[in-house]
TrEMBL record:
A Pfam family: Response_reg
CDD domains assigned: REC_OmpR_KdpE-like, trans_reg_C
A GO biological-process term: positive regulation of DNA-templated transcription
Response regulatory domain residues: 5-118
Gene that this sequence comes from: kdpE_1
PANTHER family listed in its UniProt record: KDP OPERON TRANSCRIPTIONAL REGULATORY PROTEIN KDPE, REGULATOR OF RPOS
Residues modified as 4-aspartylphosphate: D54
Keywords per UniProt: Cytoplasm, DNA-binding, Phosphoprotein, Transcription, Transcription regulation, Two-component regulatory system
Stated name of the protein: KDP operon transcriptional regulatory protein KdpE
Location in the cell: Cytoplasm
GO cellular component, one term: cytosol
OmpR/PhoB-type domain span: 131-230
């Protein structure tokens, strides 16, 4: 089986070595860059299937690199940064990053997020998850007929609940900001009303999660947004 190609853009050699070893143990091929300029060269020549990008690069801010990459590359970008402010996370996601993990981090979570992005990229390459019925856990969603079942039993979702679930499915693997979800599901007039989103996420979890207080699929990214985990086609 072909190994996924990962480009790691990080200026600290110890961190690069640590992450490279973890990814290679998980069956991935890793290329490295320690500057934004080198990352552009490696991205063009190696054609990675995913990039891991630190924001604090020596020659320019990593967000500039991400914005540039988005003009010609569809490869998912996972930000790995010590910057933990909400504004940094939201800005990086809004300019094109697909996920954001703060340092320090755990290897299992890093690997899980990389795998999720690779699965999502594969789904998008094959016309995306909206081309077929999708599953997560014991939930089955038919995006064409608007039918949802759990363990084979029909689950009634309101039109708004279904639109929210469909938005999370379309963005599978990505962290979708509160504002993006509000615009997608409710429209421009609700972009600054996050309370709507919180209420509907509570009801979705009650209907679709085994334990709504400890969700495994409808995940919160604190102060940033939500993401769907564990999707299968």
């Amino acid at each position: 089986m072909k190994k996924p190609r990962i480009l790691l853009v990080e200026d600290e050699s110890d961190i690069r070595r640590f992450i490279r070893m973890a990814l290679e143990r998980d069956g991935m091929t890793v290329f490295e860059a320690n500057t934004a300029a080198q990352a552009r060269i490696e991205s063009a020549s190696r054609q990675p299937e995913l990039l891991i990008v630190d924001l604090g690069l020596p020659d320019e801010d990593g967000k500039v690199l991400i914005r540039d990459l988005r003009s010609w590359s569809r490869a998912p970008v996972l930000v790995l940064s010590a910057r933990d402010r909400e504004t940094e996370k939201v800005e990086a996601l809004n300019i094109g990053a697909d996920d954001y993990l703060t340092k320090p981090f755990g290897v299992p979570e890093l690997i899980a997020r990389v795998r999720a992005q690779l699965r999502r990229a594969s789904l998008v390459a094959n016309d995306g998850p909206t081309a077929s019925t999708v599953h997560f856990g014991d939930v089955c969603v038919d995006l064409a007929t608007y039918e949802v079942t759990r363990n084979g039993t029909p689950v009634h979702l309101t039109p708004t609940e279904f639109r929210l679930l469909a938005a999370l499915i379309r963005g599978y693997g990505k962290v979708i900001t509160y504002r993006q979800l509000l615009l997608d599901v409710w429209g421009p007039g609700y972009a600054d009303r996050p309370q709507y989103l919180r209420v509907y996420m509570v009801t979705l979890r009650q209907k679709l999660e085994d334990d709504p207080t400890q969700p495994r699929h409808l995940m919160t990214e604190l102060q940033v947004g939500y993401r769907l985990a564990g999707l299968a086609t």
